[in-house]
Amino acid sequence: MEPVNPADRRSRGALLSGVSAELRATLALAAPLAAANLAQMAMAVINTVMVGRLGAIPLAAAGLGGMLYFTIGVILQGILSAVAPLAAHALGGGDRRAAGRVAGAGLVLALLLALPFVVALTNLDLLLRALGYDARLAAEIGSYLRAIAWGAPGFLGFAVMRSLLAALSHTRSVMAVLLVCVAGNSALNWVLIFGHLGAPALGVAGSGYASAVNHWLMLAGLALCTRMMPRLAVLRVLRNACAANWIEMIRILRLGLSIGGMRGIEVGVFMTAGILMGLLGSAALGAHQLVLNCAGTTFMVPLGISQAVTVRVAYELGAGRPRSARRACSTALALGAAFMAATAVVLWTLPDVLIAAYVDTTDPANYQTVQIARQLIAIAALFQVFDGVQVIAAGALRGYQDTFVPMVLAVFGYWGVGFLGSWVFAFPLGYGAVGLWWGLALGLAIVAILLTLRLYLTAAPITKVAKALPVH
Predict the structure, then answer these.
(1) Under 8 Å between Cβ of 144 and 11
(2) Which of 128, 185, 104, 176 is nearest to 151 (CA)?
(3) Are residues 233 and 263 in the same domain?
(4) CA-to-CA separations, 458 to 88, 111, 344, 353, 462, in angstroms, rounded
């Protein structure tokens, strides 16, 4: 038996120590961010449940109105999320003032983006009427959108502050604020929808106003966190916002437009799939929404890991440690794949338990929905790992400030393969709802593979170049 080389032992020990440290750093960032994502999802569920007590039309109005609001809002938040990698890169290089300038410019940009956002929201009911929507439904949707539009600047400003605090590794503050706001959202809905505590009963508009107030509370909570912590107060975010220059805003837009575009591409293909599913009947559409909600819940965890790895990669690159940045990528991908593999097992083995949480499986009226949902959950279980890998790879690439090519790859994967495949499988080939989901699964798999390859090609040259650089 050959003796173990002490140098090899030290190298192996250093590698394990580095991986362990990176795992702790990633989890410290990702766990609160995942909890915050789940809290935001809980707010949407609470809104739906409470408005549902008003009847079918208010429920449909809040559902469609909320979908329109959050679809546009999430795309705009994607643009502003460029603050995270830019601020983290500056912090990695030891330049806290630059991080403050980026955040200040982000707040100004959030206000500028909020203006067309509000205009669009307040006029969307006119478009719906022109498209032939029922007049009463269109009026209810318009009422909801005009109410929630008051919160649009707060919603976008919150995205900037959340990105800054993530870059600063203060993600527990984000989690704490959102958990408090879940309770606040419930209370505001109870008061404004039904007219308790002396307030007028505003119905579906009350839910919109409740969300609007809550978005401002979310922003105020994060702003208060930055003021209360001495290490964060020195960033002078508000002062930098007042003195924001166009250079920083252009940097955010240059990086963020592709991020927002990529979010729109992904959200758009699933929205379109829902429209196609509606052509297959109400049972298919109900099963689609049910399973999509299950998959969306599990997705919140790799989304949190994705947000964390963006910061980890950008910070390590800013500090001049490309090897550590690559280790952050590998650790995040392994962590996300392991979690999603575990959720795949749950989806595969407990479909009836999950379906029963949404519908009465013993009611004969739900028989067709339950049967379709069982098939779709099996497909969802198979694409769990791909879904986790693609969002984490995209987050890591943002840390490298590589966003345009990933967006192009997403267009090809989601629309060129996923949407086209969904349509072909569902209609010409006649596989219906199951075929439509196989198309989505295929698109996710293609995007995951392409983004992972892109990440490898992006990270590897930097590591090789770093070897040739002189040590300062």
Answers:
(1) no
(2) 185
(3) no
(4) 19, 33, 29, 42, 7
pLDDT tens track for 408-433:
999 999 999 999 999 999 999 999 99
Question: Which residues, including other chains, have CB under 8 Å from residue 107's CB and lie 6 or more apart?
Answer: 157, 160, 161, 237, 238, 241, 244
Distance CA 24, CA 190 (A): 40
Q: What does the block give as tokens for 220?
A: 């105020």
Q: Domain containing 427: what range?
A: 256-472
Question: Is 1 inside any structural domain?
Answer: no
Please check whether residues 336 and 453 belong to one and the same domain: yes
Tens of pLDDT, residue by residue over 89-140, are 998 988 888 888 888 899 999 999 999 999 999 998 888 888 777 788 888 8
At which of 192, 209, 244 does a domain end?
Answer: 244
The answer to whether position 289 is within a domain reads yes
**Following DSSP, what letter does each residue of 359-415 receive, concatenated?**
S-TT-GGGHHHHHHHHHHHHHHHHHHHHHHHHHHHHHHHHHTT--HHHHHHHIIIII
| Enclosing H/E stretch for 132 | none
